[in-house]
Amino acid sequence: MNKPTAREGATPLRGRNIKTIVNAGLARRHAAERRFRWYGLIAISLGLAFVVLMFANIIGKGSPAFWQTYIRVPISFDAAALDPEGKRDPQALASADYAALVRAGLRQMFPAVEGRLPLRALSALTSSDAAYELQRRVQDNPGLIGTQQEVWLLASAAVDTFVKGNIDRSLPEAERPLKDSQIEWIDQLRAAGKIERQFNAVLFRNGDSREPEQAGIRGALMGSFFTLVVTFLLSFPIGVATAVYLEEFAPKNRWTDIIEVNINNLAAVPSIVFGLLGLAVFINFFGLPRSAPLVGGLVLSLMTLPVIIIAGRAALTSVPPSIREAALGMGASKLQMVGHHVLPLAMPGMLTGSIIGMARALGESAPLLMIGMVAFIVDVPKNFLDPSTVLPVQIYLWSDLPERAFVERTSAAIMVLLAFMILMNGLAILLRKRFERRW
Amino acid sequence: MQPLLLLTLLLLSVGAYHLGRKRAFAVAGGQIRNLHSLPGFYGFYAALWCGLPALAVLALWAIAQPGILVNWVVAGLPPELQNLPPDRLNLVVNDLKNLVSGNFVSSASDPVMVEAANRYRQLRAIGNAALWVAVLSFAIGGIAYAWRAISPALRARNRVEGIINLFLIASSTVAIFTTIGIVLSVVFESLLFFRQVPVSEFLFGLQWSPQTALRADQVGSSGAFGAAPLFAGTLLISGIAMLVAVPIGLMSALYLSEYATPKFRAFAKPALEILAGIPTVVYGFFAALTVAPLIREIGAAVGLHVASESALAAGLVMGIMIIPFVSSLSDDVINAVPQSMRDGSYALGATKSETITRVLLPAALPGIVGSILLAVSRAIGETMIVVMAAGLSANLTANPLEAVTTVTVQIVTLLTGDQEFDSPKTLAAFALGLVLFAVTLILNIIALRVVRKYREQYE
Amino acid sequence: MSTTAIDTQVALNGALNRNAPLRQSAGVQVTDYENRQTVGKITVDNPKMVCREVNVHYGQKHAIKNVSLDIGANEVIAFIGPSGCGKSTFLRCLNRMNDTIPTARVTGQIKLDDDDIHAKEIDVVQLRARVGMVFQKPNPFPKSIYENVAYGPRIHGMVNTKAELDDLVRESLERAGLIKEVEKRMLEPGTSLSGGQQQRLCIARAIAVNPEVILMDEPCSALDPIATAKIEELIDELRENYTIVIVTHSMQQAARVSQRTAYFHLGDLIEIGDTDQIFTNPRHKLTEDYITGRFG
């Protein structure tokens, strides 16, 4: 055994005390360590702060929108004005001048108001929906005719904004949407308890509108619903089938390699490119109608497909091979093995992935702009071909509008959207927790 | 569509399944062991024979019927209408269709049109009736065929599995067709565009004003399609986003994987990932209504002029959006570094931060680069934030306080107006789409390859 | 062959509480399988490390039960025992590597020279610079061969000039018997070496900071016989300058390289003594069963 001779040579550390060398640098090194740790903590706190900030910002802006200002107006459902012929003919009831009833009611509360302009200012306290509200009530219950009722009527957006404290009364009259006289009336109404905030059912009952106080998300919600139904019906079966094929049946060759690379790349293609595809192929080539949930669903399902496939494959690989071997060993065909054993075990994972994919599709807006789901649509869509918009696009449309009342409603719509996202993701987490298996 | 017919077909198929099973029992003399396959497979065999051909007929019919109907109705129109130029004729047909579906149209009083609409309705009713007959006869014919074909020797399982296999293979090609569809649609329209605007001008031109005029004699009617300011704007905003996202995302990932207690990690990791689940339109709203005014006020306070739609606001918010993307990808990458590396370093007396910066990060570098590339591609393709918070003016500037526009903003702007599909304006959007698709594709391919190589290194 | 092994005297370290009962029994032959008191002499004349009543818990699991032993200066001591017996766990106590496992809890006293390694004024960084470690699987960093060896001196600020560092790296590689093989390829990645070379690189990396003790956790289990022989030869040479604690599952290896051997069984230190005596004349039935191959 020849021992290394270098040991006798000059070694840099020979004779030096390791303890002192190391101790000399300790303070500096520990300071660096603490610094680094702080950077990490700061980074993660920043990230979490953004989450909190965004939620606080949106909830702060949006929660007032769930309450809407109403004014209690005495209405006399004058038979002479509504139904002069007394036949309760629906046509006649529909076309009567309900706005006049509202005006009369307001005048009754403020009899001192005279003149064309002041009267117009007075009737501007209520929304134009007030007349339709009366119409609906009479149509539902013709017995109202001839009676005198106190009715809560929707206030105009300006009144609502003022009541919520978002209009500064110290501003010069010309710079605020309410005149001095209107503010005075509101104060009087308030003092008399004839103005109050009620739950904003309009938001969930109406489609879009140019008047903020009448604008609702019903149309967008139904549009989202129809779009997602199409998306799910297409992407789930195809996604599961693809995952099963690639994971269980496909031979490992060039072709399946291409499919795989392709799916991974599709997952990272910008969503707007899918919109271009939808516009060029579905609308221009196949001539499907613009703005239809069907087309939106088609585009979104192509986008969601990679997500479902990737999640599905992960779920399939987590099923241990021993189960497959056991099934094949019992003489099951490959398809029976997959259908009876592997797929049921992988299903919770696949559903989890699909729900997450659907949540993403629900929040997607860019590709839908391309296929025309960005129009101003008042009517609530009733089927897969009606022109419609979806919730995120509705948010986009409203966010462009300058009125304070729309800012509020936009935030409220965002809250509804986020609630759905949280619900879906929560469901996915629940599913995973419930069915998670450790092999 | 014909929901009732589909439902009937479904019921028939269910019936066919039971018939097939029964038949299999019957031909086997009640002894399953005489059969080649389990009776259920004979049931499926019959159900498939009942459903598939009928479904194919239904699909073909649904595609062909509207065109044929229109042809027939047009053939019945007076000659002076028939001989209209194609685009005018299209208008007439549209009117007709509106009339048929009961919408109010200007030609409602025209007796010719009313008559044609009636004819259309009539023909459609006949067509639908014929469809019912055809589909049902195919379905029943299929059942009859299967009934005769079922014998103990019939390899029903193999047949059924063959069909299912076919379905699986067909499904897996959808992704391929999607890619082909994307490529074809953007390339085809782009070629049309490049016939009008040379490629070099599009890629390197410094002037972008796609507002083509309505009349040919108006000023600026030709429009300018130099997209360089768009690319610069996209890069500026993405750059700002990465400056926010990479340090925060990477440091968060390091903290969570190396320092955080399991409890803190279990709370903070999903909390951070909430950012990834928030729809981009929400970020856009946040950027446009909260961050942009805030930056402007801060700018005003220190005497800087900040555009109301500054690149900074859009970039900052986009950066926030990408944080969880960077952090979760980096987290995966860092966790893929084997524990033995950390142990080796700790055993030599290294502190945690020394281990991280000198061992973990160099070891994870390729993977981290890959995830940053993926994040860049995500930033470049992000649409809603910039549509809502960045401007429309195509400034060529590196100043983050000015307004810039991006490729995605222009695509949306060009395609959401009412434009003819063939105008250079619309086509320009597809050319931009092509650039966007190509760039993100290249980034993704490189990134995925780098990450994959990296993973293999430690497997 | 040592005859002092029959010694039943318990030499308590002065720093220890003299009243604390030290579980150590002796006798001619312990045939009682249930008897888990340590057989043999745990103390040495010139101890480098002194461990008393060390207990390790992993969560609920009691992995090391009241183990006391001395590690002599410039000796090679081998820890043997069936897998799961706690020998690696105990080894990891000696440079506080168990600190990196959140659920692990270590109690008892471990001294390096006169320093209690758990004491406040002893920094774990300093401890690990003094007590180096080589792992079961070679784990070179994904850096060049040179950088692998230079890593320790660099982080501890042990050298001031590049020339000094060069010397130190060369010398460490030389001591690890690797210099001839890597002289020309210092800048190639450490992972490009063969398994045995990688393990010697890890040894070079450990000795570059000139530690007092080197812990080796089954250093040859991932190596072929030839590489193993080289490492064993190296261990023998290193003994001159370092104290070496080696965990091994191979009794032959323990017999070849070590002077003393400790036999662990399910977290208990069953028997400790001179290697020759343990292998030729085990005094505990469990040791005998293990050595004769009845289990393990």
Describe the protein's topology:
The complex is a heterotrimer of chains A (439), B (459) and C (296).
Chain A lengths: L17 H45 L4 E10 L2 H4 L7 H6 L2 H12 L6 H8 L5 H12 L7 E7 L2 H7 L16 H12 L3 E5 L2 H4 L12 H32 L4 H13 L4 H15 L7 H25 L3 H9 L4 H30 L2 H5 L20 H9 L4 H32 L4
Antiparallel strand pairs in A: 1-2, 1-3
Helix pairs in contact in A: 1-18, 4-6, 10-13, 10-15, 10-17, 12-13, 13-15, 14-15, 15-18, 17-18
Chain B lengths: L2 H25 L11 H37 L3 H4 L3 H15 L10 H39 L6 H41 L2 H6 L3 E2 L14 E2 L2 H32 L2 H16 L2 H22 L9 H26 L2 H9 L4 H30 L2 H6 L17 H10 L7 H34 L2
Chain C lengths: L23 E2 L12 E2 L7 E12 L2 E12 L3 E5 L6 H7 L10 E9 L2 E2 L7 H7 E4 L10 H12 L5 H14 L3 H4 L12 H13 L5 E5 L7 H14 L4 E5 L3 H7 L2 E6 L2 E7 H6 L4 H7 L5
Parallel strand pairs in C: 1-2, 5-10, 5-11, 8-9, 9-10
Antiparallel strand pairs in C: 3-4, 3-6, 6-7, 11-12
Explain what the structure shows:
The complex is a heterotrimer of chains A (439), B (459) and C (296). Chain A is mainly α. Chain A folds into two domains: 65-200, no CATH class; 218-435, MetI-like (MetI-like fold), CATH 1.10.3720.10. Chain A has 18 helices and three strands. Chain A has a three-stranded antiparallel beta sheet. In chain A, helix 1 (18-62) packs across helix 18 and helix 4 packs across helix 6 (129-140). The longest helix of chain A has 45 residues, at 18-62. Chain A starts with 17 loop residues before the first helix and ends with a helix. With 459 residues, chain B is mainly α. Chain B folds into two domains: 3-154, no CATH class; 224-457, MetI-like fold. A two-stranded antiparallel ribbon of chain B has the order 1-2. The mean pLDDT of chain B is 86. With 296 residues, chain C is an alpha/beta fold. Chain C has one domain: Rossmann fold. Helix content of chain C is 31%, strand content 24%. Chain C has helices at 87-93, 124-130, 145-156, 162-175, 179-182, 195-207, 225-238, 251-257, 275-280, 285-291, and strands at residues 24-25, 38-39, 47-58, 61-72, 76-80, 104-112, 115-116, 131-134, 213-217, 243-247, 260-265, 268-274. In chain C, the strands form three sheets. Chain C has a six-stranded mixed beta sheet, with helices on both faces. In chain C, strands 4-3-6-7 form a four-stranded antiparallel beta sheet, with helices on one face. In chain C, strands 1-2 form a two-stranded parallel ribbon. Chain C starts with 23 loop residues before the first strand and ends in a 5-residue tail after the last helix. Mean pLDDT of chain C is 86; it is low at 1-21. Classes of the chains: A mainly alpha (439), B mainly alpha (459), C alpha/beta (296). The interface between A and B is large, with 84 and 88 residues.
